[in-house]
Amino acid sequence: MKTIIAEKPSVAREIAGLVGASDKKDGYLTGNGYFVTWAFGHLIGLGMPEDYGISGFDKASLPILPNPFLLTVRKVKKDKGYTADIGALKQLKVIEQLFKQSNSIIVATDAGREGELIFRYIYEYLKCNKPFERLWISSLTEKAIKQGFDNLKDGKEFDGLYQAAQGRSRADWLVGINATQALSIAAGNGIYSLGRVQTPTLALICKRYLDNKDFTVKKYWQIQLTHHKAQVDFKSISATKWDEKQLADDTLKAIQRGATATVTSAETKSVTEQPPLLFDLTGLQKEANKRLKLSAEATLNIAQSLYEKKFITYPRTGSKYIPEDMWAEIPNLVRALQNREDCKQALTKIKWGRFNKRIVNDLRVTDHHGLLITDKVPSVLNADENKIYNMIALRLLEAISQACVKEITDVSLQVLHYDFTAKGCKIQEAGWRSIKGSFTDDGEEPVQELPELHKGDELAIKEAAVLEKQTKPPVLYTEAGLLSAMETAGKDIENEEERKALKNIGIGTPATRAAIIETLFTRNYIQRDKRALIPTEKGLQVYGLVKERKIADVAMTAEWELALHKIENNEADAGMFQKEMENYAKSITDELLQTSIGSTNQPKLTCPKCKNQQLIIRDKIVKCPDEACNWVQFRTVCGVQISIENVTSLVNKGKTSLIKGMTSKAGKKFDAYILLKENAESSFEFEKNKSRKRNGK
Asked: Per its UniProt record, what PROSITE patterns does this chain match (predicted)?
């Protein structure tokens, strides 16, 4: 007998159907010489400090450097502690029995770093020594699975992948556990979570937020002219930016007294825009955030669902290319879209026989190729699945289309002694841009078409106006912007040699970036303000403490990603990497234990209910330490975090300032004051025309 182990039940069922294992049992299927079973994601993980006999946060125990690392069954939170997940224990027993009854194992967990880790941790925990082969596939279509079974690979070929996954897992443990405990002990006031990737990501958000907040907006003025020639109206703008409106107004008056514009130069050049490559996961998440306002995690979940329904290939890919041997399948995928209403218009723009092979590059394909649709085209999807599927389908059509060729014209004019410029664009070959019919990128102003202009031409001025403009601060990160920053973290490194080495290395991986962002939300370090990501008070406090330390250094985290990449390709030693992480854990622990946290910045507030105790102020709640009194006020009310200033105002004056942008249970936005009633319970007070009251706890 052979046991096939998949990552989740849905995938196991697909595989079981193909190998003839149709007899359903508790926790597996069997038949035709196979057992087909599954994990539920990470059934086994690294033990926590309590598994090593260390309970609570104890300065004397730091740094904690496990030797060896212990593996434990997945745990769930119960009351004040953690206990083994009953479902995980039950499934693990099933897997153990099947492994014992089998001669060999076929690993069918997701074909990537985390999928490899899921199996290997189970294999190691169960002390199994049966030989195993790897099913390595990029889609769950019947054809792909059959091809995968025809080309099973020796499990040893993936030892490098496992060592990289294990190295990542242990590094996150060493840094996360030690740094979190050290900073929390130093603070003595709540838990301050730090992590190998989450902290540099938080640093990116905080730095951008502070740069934006501290930016001084300056007004300036330019003059815009409207001209007419050969039945074409077009505009030019002054090269001068006046700091004083009066100077711009005076210039405008001079121009309006009958001045003409003289063309001093007119240069035309042809620009070729190559089509975009296929989506990798990060690219899809960025596009979905820009166009659909979907979070990175939501996009990943939708893509995973489409993958499991066999409509797209493996989504957790870091590549935008396909290998040469897949090129022959592309026409079939394009033909499959002919039955899809949403793609019919775009398909009329495709030039059969002239497909662009730019996406073919064997050297740039990592574990998996770029995101593709499969030949199984969906007929019914929910709204979000439909939009994500269309994004992937249309990107394929764009990628195989010809380049877009534009004629760009730059014109310089002179009016009196002032310089003006005009820019024009004419589409010569629409190419890939005809697929969606969009000829400019997001944020770009549509470029006007110009008449034929030559040096020395005199142009009348139809209209002239002063435009008021202002300098713009660094834009706050959206999830799309943050994903870009994480993906290209290496490009902003000051040291030139480091920057070159880390040019294409980001922080996190395409598969983990969404989870990192969600972790920052869970930790109450960041929040959404419309589409922007901004730090909370706690997030800014943590950033203030660690911004000068290595743990917040994007360059170092990118170096670690590079090291893991080398381990995966058997170019670096996993043991050396772990030693380096242990040394780093020691140094960051020492650094953080000496940190002085300004808990003195917290106001001293007396409990409004018992009038005796000083309130404990945490990032999520404000509470009275006296259990008999038990007064508590949550810091997040209807989706908005209450600032320390408003907490102080509520306790001392009985009322906050007007809090804007709260969300009711029905999903409606509202503004209200929070006030304390005589019994110290909080409630809402609306502006006079909205006098409803509700409990604010």
From this structure: TOPO_IA_2
